[in-house]
Amino acid sequence: MAKKILVIDDEELIVRSLKKLLEKNAFEVFIAKNGQDAIVMAEEEDFDLIIADMRMPGLNGAESVHSIFENLDKKKVKRTPVIFITGYADTEMEDKAKALDPIAYIYKPFDIPELVDKVREALK
What we know:
Number of domains: 1
CATH superfamily: Response regulator
Helix content: 40-55%
CATH architecture: 3-Layer(aba) Sandwich
Strand content: 15-25%
Shape: globular
Number of strands: 5
CATH class: Alpha Beta
């Protein structure tokens, strides 16, 4: 059975590219265009990995993942591994993301083989 990956990103080009790349590598990909949708999706589905953009309208990536983790903690379920991606160097935002213990914090434009390696590492 294919591993399920939730991609949280509001940029259409990034979403399409990640979906195509991950599906090519035999992963099942679910897309949330904003943090609130991601929280709802994570309530309804168990994901093996979350890839979240840091900057989005409304809830940013760290806020979205934090809410998802709170819900998982309430259910006493293991936290889903997460990879954050960002196009901005923002120390405060990076610190908030790193407090959630991600597998990786990757800057756009990212190296595709590096991202695939990080996804595989997270799903071991």
